[in-house]
Amino acid sequence: MAGLPTTARVVIIGGGVVGTSSLYHLCKAGWTDCVLLEKNELTSGSTWHAAGNVPTFSSSWSLMNMQRYSTELYRGLAEAVDYPMNYHVTGSLRLAHTKERMQEFQRARGMGRYQGMDIDVVGLDEIKRRYPFIETHELKGALYDPSDGDIDPAQLTQALAKGARDMGAKIIRFCPVTGVRRENGEWVVETPQGEIRCEIVINAAGYRAAEVGKMFGRDVPMMVMSHQYILFEEIPELAAWSKEQGRKLPLLRDVDTSYYLRQEKSGMNLGPYERNCRAHWATHNDPMPEDFSFQLFPDDLDRLEHYLADAVARVPILGTAGLSKVINGPIPYAPDGNPLIGPMPGVPNAFEACVFTFGIAQGGGAGKVLAEWVTEGQTEWDMWSCDPRRFTSFAAAPDYCVAKGMEIYGNEYAIQFPRHAWPQGRNRKLSPLHDRIKALGGQFDAYNGWERATWYAGPGDDTSEEATLTFRRDGPWQKRVREECLAVRDAAGILDLPGFSRFNLEGPGAADWLAKQVTGLVPKPGRIGLVYFADDKGRIVTEMSVVRHGEDQMTLITAAVAQWHDFEWLKSRMPANAAFTLTDRTEEYSTQILAGPNSRKILTEVCDADLALPWLTHQETTIAGRWAKLVRVSFAGELGWEIHTKVADTATVFDAVWAAGQKHGLKPFGMYALDSLRLEKGYRAWKGDLSTDYSVLQGGLERFVKWDKPDFRGKAALQNEKQQGVKKRFVTLVVENPGDCDAPYMSTLWHDGRIVGETTSGGWGHRIDKSIALGMLRTDLAEPGTAVEVEIFGDRFKAVVQNDEPLWDPKNERLRA
Ligand SMILES: Cc1cc2nc3c(=O)[nH]c(=O)nc-3n(C[C@H](O)[C@H](O)[C@H](O)COP(=O)(O)OP(=O)(O)OC[C@H]3O[C@@H](n4cnc5c(N)ncnc54)[C@H](O)[C@@H]3O)c2cc1C
What we know:
Elements: E1 7-13, H1 17-28, E2 34-37, H2 61-81, E3 87-88, E4 92-96, H3 99-114, E5 120-122, H4 124-130, E6 141-145, E7 150-151, H5 153-167, E8 170-172, E9 179-183, E10 186-191, E11 194-203, H6 209-215, E12 223-232, H7 236-245, E13 251-254, E14 259-264, E15 267-272, E16 279-280, H8 305-314, E17 323-333, E18 340-343, E19 350-354, H9 359-376, H10 398-410, H11 434-439, E20 442-447, E21 450-456, H12 477-490, E22 492-497, E23 501-506, H13 510-517, E24 528-534, E25 540-550, E26 553-558, H14 563-571, E27 581-584, E28 589-595, H15 599-606, E29 618-623, E30 626-631, E31 640-646, H16 650-661, E32 666-668, H17 671-681, H18 715-724, E33 728-735, E34 748-751, E35 754-765, E36 770-778, E37 787-792, E38 795-801, H19 813-816
Parallel strand pairs: 1-2, 1-11, 2-8, 4-13, 11-19, 22-32
Antiparallel strand pairs: 3-7, 4-6, 5-6, 9-10, 10-11, 12-15, 12-16, 12-17, 13-14, 14-15, 18-19, 20-21, 22-28, 23-26, 23-27, 24-25, 25-26, 28-31, 29-30, 30-31, 33-36, 33-38, 34-35, 34-37, 35-36, 37-38
Helix pairs in contact: 1-5, 1-9, 2-5, 2-9, 12-17, 15-16
The chain binds flavin-adenine dinucleotide.
Flavin-adenine dinucleotide is lined by residues 13-19, 37-40, 44-47, 49-53, 176-177, 204-208, 212, 227, 229, 293, 327, 329-331, 354, 356-361.
């Protein structure tokens, strides 16, 4: 065993597939002064008992990308590091029982092909041809993924470890980390074998990540489920077939029933994600044991009976096989089922690469992403889906984690419908108006835990969860969303927006510093303006509204979900000796959006503010005796104001505005209407249209770039890009004769039989009565009037590039009214 070094540049805690992949990728990036510390033996956590399936399928672009990278890495790894391993690329069939499932597959096929994979959607004959033992009752078709397969997780981990060691990294086994402390800007990692001083620490402790997180004072949002698979003895018929064919059966996933079935040698492996699932180590009287290395939970076959019966009916030869072994091991879940990869929130020079439910499939890609975070501070692909900062403190509450983890596990293969609000873990953060909004018919979804109305149901509307399980535009909400949009267009609408993130930036030098961080101009005192933050590559990091109160006194406002991400982006870039401060004031204030041509009349009745002040100004006033800040902007694209109040005053102010608004046609509107209204204005949404996958210039945001400023982050990269020519451009498309669905995120755009771009968001514009898609298109095609095709769930529709101006009120006359 190698001795413990006293210093290292990076220390990784945990030697499962993810820790070793992180180590391997750090070394590949040239960072070889890295040490991995493992409590027990490598692979002794979840990794040793994993089934080893390596799918590429995901409904998320970034997860699919990460998994695709894994498959590519694993194919060449044995040779690259000279460590033989079993990796069977068998392909897989993912079965569909419903039309909606086929739609999901069509979308995945589109994304997969865009990523260069040969994924296909196949019919029953093709299923039978590829899998002769299957019964096709109740099936509509399947997704065939040729690069799916299974790998030996222990061999994979050892191969990554060997590759890293060969490049100079150290791996110390049987060396648990017992604590960490910060000394002179360095980390000191404590173990029974001694201490290591290092620059950077990575928590890759798998299902023990919360325990390790505590050492840093960080509450990791996670819980642990028990997950089982059953191994069956040899099936002679299968053995004979395999011998004759010289191959294994493709892996089968019956996702609507919720299990996978895989050939394992000449037997089978059945792994259900059962609805009646079980959390472990979730209560005080069931604590996580100090050591669970290479251990399993007791078998719990009762939970699996239904799935076993279903699988036998689907593949009858399974019924002839004896059961040989059950594996029941711990598997960690974050509250949305995605792993945590990236900066550890609130902790300097510390990162997370943990809480993986599909760590074998994602481990390869995760190592790449983690290494980029560490060595470059940014990632090649936008990885918000896995960024630890997507959860804020409320999400670490154990009861929340358990409720969400069980919900996701029990619905692991569920289709993600755009209008479906998952029911667990709700009502965590309520607006003071919650009861009023509910009484008005509000239907809710959670945004960073805040319950916001998505739409307002009327009498007789179907508000069941089932009604939302569709990709179709015309669900029960559609008629109401239209009414809400038209009320905003013709009279006035009010939207309660609790949890808008806001940070105060104030003190000498604040404005000068901010000016160097953003691509454009910081608004003048008394004004509000949109600013964009680019990274060193000129890519879009985030967008914020700056409300400038005084020379060096500002409030920065950003999306609810961006709260921790954006705060850290600012905080970590402030000079150590700054004379100005940044404080998060999100919990103290709330916002209501009042929009529509009658909004001025309504405000006139409740306050004596100067409502003639132009667009993009702000002022303080009093409504119903309470302080309020009126900010003249409108994401809805009509005359309007944001009304900012102290949280405690929200209800009083709302009641006054609501009462005054009745004779002016004031109606409540929700997030779905707001999304429709902003699409018509071409306003970008956070982490859909705005992401680090695109540069500020690609995003069509050059009007927010002030080239003649002395310097700003990303300037050199953007100048260079401008000189070279911007390769793709943000466009607004109108989809002609669009069918039943609008374009979801990452629908491919086609021209002359080739993919030429992708959508970043889409939906119906009720004021213009058209299906809109925002997206990125090859620059030569991004000319108004060009016709392309957009692929929506497998069907292509004509889509026409629009003028580079809003579809609704192109000259912003209504906004400025
Ligand atoms: C039954 C089952 C089947 C599965 N099948 C699949 C599958 O087919 N495909 C797939 O992709 N995923 C599968 N998974 C999930 C997969 O096992 C995990 O996602 C993956 O192994 C996680 O790897 P990891 O490196 O993050 O964590 P782990 O493998 O748990 O590694 C974490 C390591 O950290 C070490 N550690 C913890 N605390 C400390 C400390 N204080 N100091 C030092 N070291 C510490 C632990 O000893 C452990 O070795 C399955 C899981 C189960 C339970």
